[in-house]
């Protein structure tokens, strides 16, 4: 039986599958042919091509992101210096925003760089099955992906708690209305 991507089920000649004693519902003496999944040579080419694309895209993003963040940081700092004389509080707000951008960028680099490196390992190094390197790459991918997801989630909460503009945008996006605050007038109505 031919399957997609050059995989096929091949019968194991001379071997029959028989249900164990814990398997009930089969007639006495029941057996079936045994099969195994044979993977063609082209299938590993698809996997290595996928690995190459994932590794390359993650590495490119991990390299370009800090440069873009640095450009944004410089632009915000320049605008903060430019408006210092006009509006000091707005200047301080922009400086805080630029610090937050640098913090979030550093957290992103720390969480995405190991992921990129782990994805690049199989592109340049042949990993033998059941080797220590295969185990490190496999578990490393899981651990770094978990760390990356936790970082992304934490960044959402950090931005929501620290940035009033981010809160306003999130409320608009989620269609949450803020109730207007009523001022209490202590003078009696007479």
TrEMBL record:
The chain crosses the membrane at residues 50-74, 101-124, 136-162. Keywords: Membrane, Transmembrane, Transmembrane helix. One of its GO terms (molecular function) is G protein-coupled peptide receptor activity. Pfam families: 7TM_GPCR_Srw. PANTHER family: G-PROTEIN COUPLED RECEPTORS FAMILY 1 PROFILE DOMAIN-CONTAINING PROTEIN-RELATED, SERPENTINE RECEPTOR, CLASS W. This is G-protein coupled receptors family 1 profile domain-containing protein. It comes from Caenorhabditis remanei.
